[in-house]
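W.,

You were right to be curious about this one. When I first looked at the sequence I had no strong expectations either way, so I just let the prediction run and decided to look at it fresh. Below is the sequence, 423 residues in total, followed by the output.
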Amino acid sequence: MARLQEIAADYGKVKNYVYARFGGIAGLPKLYPGYTVQNEMTASGLRETLGMPSVYFYLAVFDALGDVKCQWTRTKTKILKLLNQNEGFSEEDKHYLRFLLKVNNAFEEVLNQKPVELTKAVQKQYEKVAAQADTGRLHKYLRRQVRKHHVKLHTDRTDGFTIAERAYRYADHGIYISIKEKRKRIFIPLTDNNRYKSQIYVRLYPEKHSVELKVPIQVSVQNHGDYLKQVGVAAGLYTMLTTDEGHCYGEELGKYQIAYADWVREQTRSYNRNRNENPGRKKYSAKKKRYEERLHSYINQELNRFLREEKPRIIYMVKLPKPKAGGWNKRINHSMAQWQRGYIRQRLEQKCRENSVEIVEVLGKDISRECSECGEPGKKAEGEFVCPACGYRGEEKVNTARNVKKRGQGEGKLNPRGTYLAR
């Protein structure tokens, strides 16, 4: 156990070194793709000082690097939320700041007080956006918010570390793990006969003199010979998915979500009324968890039915929208805030990976207002779409799903980076 604890302590030291050296503004240009960090850590001499095997040292480096990237994402998300709520900014100012937060190179150069120099195509876009804003004032605002909200990471945990596949081997009903001494391993007996070929996280319990091995779940991918269709779908708050052929899945989603949102709203109101009496939140948390589990169970059930009945090879869909605040109806605003769009998207992506189904995002601008027959703008009223140009009349979500499929098969496809793919 002492030898494993020594590795865990060194693992934490390496992570803290990376946090301190690359977690701030000056380290931003080195985070992507990360090879600069790896090379600088190799040249730092820290591995030799600690006497740490490379199978642990570089995993600690990239583990810390991932944490730093996540911390910058949290900082950007916080700043984005604040600027959206700031009434002192014009729409042009907000658009410029959103551009800086989205384009990594521009964000880095502004924070490091350097001229913004981007690739030719993006530079033109930047100059167009910058021309409509007071860039000097906005740059100072961005730097001030980063100084205020960005936190350099630090860890005091020394109860575990990650090991690569070449740092262990199975034999004698147990596992042999490399230690700091060259060509030596320690033996740990196992309680099962499972064997894995992947990175493993070793969690130490010194007080119990035991070790827990945490292994990533391996999901088998299935290939279905009868999954051949190309399906366009429209996502909604009340009906989860509507296809271009008019099939609906998750028609009771709205009922589940509104009941959940109403309950959360009422409980929050009640809690705020009685805050001074220090009401407990244990029962609230337990019931909230039951509501979410029931909602998630229904979502998974309907997604399974969608894949089973539609048998898609490709699914075309618009990126699920963010909830909009500030509407006239507070109840609807609260329901939108509780919309499980992130969970739906996450579960759909996971199920599509497991079943070898491709998801293609399409350009969503004005997609619900366009006629799927002639392409002209139409009118929506009470869930129905009517085109005054060609006379087409149909269910609003079906029209949207048809447009999604049409754009996905045409020139409206988006690649993973969010730029357009011309055909």
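Here's what jumped out at me. The longest strand covers residues 229-235. And, maybe more interesting for your project: The two ends are 60 Å apart (CA to CA).

Coffee later to discuss?

I.
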